[in-house]
Each structure stands twice: as structure tokens, then as C-alpha cells.
Write a structure and sequence with these properties.
Blueprint: E1 14-15, E2 23-24, E3 40-44, E4 52-53, E5 60-63, E6 67-75, E7 87-92, E8 97-102, E9 104-106, E10 116-125, E11 128-134, E12 141-142, E13 153-158, E14 171-181, E15 193-201, E16 208-218, E17 222-226, E18 230-234, E19 239-243, H1 244-250, E20 257-265, E21 270-278, E22 282-290, E23 293-296, E24 340-343, E25 350-353
Antiparallel strand pairs: 1-2, 3-13, 4-12, 5-11, 6-10, 6-13, 7-8, 7-11, 9-10, 14-20, 14-23, 15-19, 15-21, 16-17, 16-18, 16-20, 21-22, 24-25
Amino acid sequence: MTRLGESPRACSLAMSGAAGAAILIVVLLAVPIFAPAQTTDIFNNTNVDTVTNGPTAPTVFTLHSGATVTQLVTYHWNNAHGAVPGKIGLRSGTGAVYGPFDATPSSGQGGAPNVNWTATVNLPLTPGDYTVVDTEPATWSQNARSGNRGFAIVRGALQPTQPSDDQAPGRGFEYAVKFVCGKPEVPVVAPGDYFTAINVHNPNNRVVNFRKKIAVALPGEKGGPISKFYEATLKPDQALEIDCPDILRHAEAQSFLKGFVVIETPWELDVVAVYTAGHPQVETMEVEHVKPRTIQAAQTVTSGSDSCPGNPVNGVGCCCNEPKPGPPGTMFPDCRAPLVCVRDPNANYSVCATHVSVNTFLDPTPAIAAGQPARCAQP
């Protein structure tokens, strides 16, 4: 049922028991609900696509740190009829049950009654997997975009985590993923068609900005070309694929190619490579879980030194290779050796840094004043 532009928030769903067991569901809000101060959407799987009733997959979310949950929200569009509110709860991956708790209804798009169900709770939770439980799965909204999971929102406050040695400030992760793409014209590998698909998943409860480049391996023990870095972003629990057409495009190549896709990220990711080959039907397939190595992040350098001329970007570093606010053609000065100019993947400015690394820009990204053309301070 189309919700006429409704923008629901995400919630989670669970399925329990044997055949015929009730599906646990979570409701989505069609109208804003004002959560307590300092709370956030810990989980939100809602979207604006057409919805139908009855989720067929459980709505599960993962806490990577402790949290205090203050609201559970599920959405029951039910062909614009809504539904008499039932109860909403959670079930942990260890089997612990929280609730279910009485839900309060509110109207949605076009005044449709009782479409938003909200349970106000106070649940301190430890890290782990949790399933949203809704006592009325028959009217719980879901669609293909939500993976046929009930629309749900889980609100609360995440507890700050202490970084481990592998996630300490100034450190990041690098993945070197082998690839083989195309059909060889010379016998460097067995005749056939080779394909590589690299899947990257963000398991963190935060948006992760990372970057990737292609390092080509040439036969005859020759070092090959290295592409520039290409930036990418994944929201929590999102995944993307880097396959042979992407690799060939980034490497500016068209024929058979071997080498590495190098991924740099400030937060650990799930990286899995799938290799297939055939003549041309698939004859072999292998899956590799790629482990990261820890790398040192680049450090920005504040202005005021001979190596870093110009003014800082909101206290982060000095601008480089960017137009100044003012007469056309006026530029900020370049960095002085041994520093290099690095562009922030999250903004439209560059800063001087000790070396090129995606980890130059650790969270949070510095605020930028509205209307600053160069996104840098006036020198």
C-alpha cells in the first residue's frame, strides 16, 4: 500500500518458534516523534516505498556497544486503516526477553489512525544481536527494500566505547585484496575467463568513509601502475561490491588484468572476495575472507609553521590547493615538504598532512561555516 510520501523510520522484526509461530514486528513512525534529548536512532530500517503487511523475515539489529533504549517504534499502515495497538518488545540473541511493552498509537499520512506504535521504555542493553517483537505481525508493514522485515525504529543513547589497540586514535586499517579479471592472451594463467567480486560490508553503528585504489601486477617481475584513490561511503550495515568492470575502469584498462584492490579505512570492515573461472561456464569458485593490517593514520598539521602556511580549517589544518575567498584565481598556498596535500573525502577542502591516508580525517569531520566558498578560513 503506498503511503503517499510517508517517510517511516526503521524498526526490527523477529520470527519465533515452529510453523505458524507469531512474527515479531516493529512499527514505523509516519510522523515525527520527539525522543528525549541526546537520543538517536540506534536502528531504523524504514523507507518510503510501497508497503504490504506481514513481514516474512525477522527484524534484527546489532549493538556494537552498550546502550540504553528509550523508545521502540513499529509501523502498521494496514491499507491506511492502522491497527489497534498491541505490544512491542525485544529478544536478545541469547534468548533473553524484554517486555513486551504496551504501545501508544499515533496518526500517520493523511490522518490514517493508529499507524505508528510507540513503546516508551528504559532498557540498558549490552552489545549483541536483538530482535524486535511485535504482537500484531499481521498488520506490520514491510517491503522488499526492508528485506521483507517489519519497519521499526529503536531509539536511545549509545554508550561511548574505549578504542582498542587496533582502533586507537591515529590508527586505521588496510585491506589488500587479490583480483584476477578477464581472459588472458598470453599463458600467465590457465586459459579461461576469470572474475573477481569483492564484497565490502560495514558492521559498525556509524557511517564509514573509506577509499580504494588499484595496484596492477605486471608479469616479468615488473611493478605495475597504481590508480588514484576512489572514495566510498557505507552507512551502518550497508554493503557494496567491487567487481571486474569497476576494477578495469579505475585502472583505465580493458583487457586481462591482475593485481590488488587496496582499501584504507579508519574503522574495520568485512571484506570478502569471490573468485570464479571457467571456459566460459563456471568451473571453479573460491571465497576468501580478507584480514586487515593495522596502519598508522596520517596526521594533519596546524598552521603557523614553515611547513604549513596559511590559515587553519576550523582548527584542523592549513588549506592547500584550494581557491581563496576573494578575487578569482587567488589560491591558498601549497604544503611544504615533507607534508603533502590531502583532500578530505567528507568535504570540499584539502589540508596539509604527514602522508596520504584516508585516516587523515578522523571522526567527527570538522564543522564548516555556511557559505564559505573555499571551505577554508580567510587568510
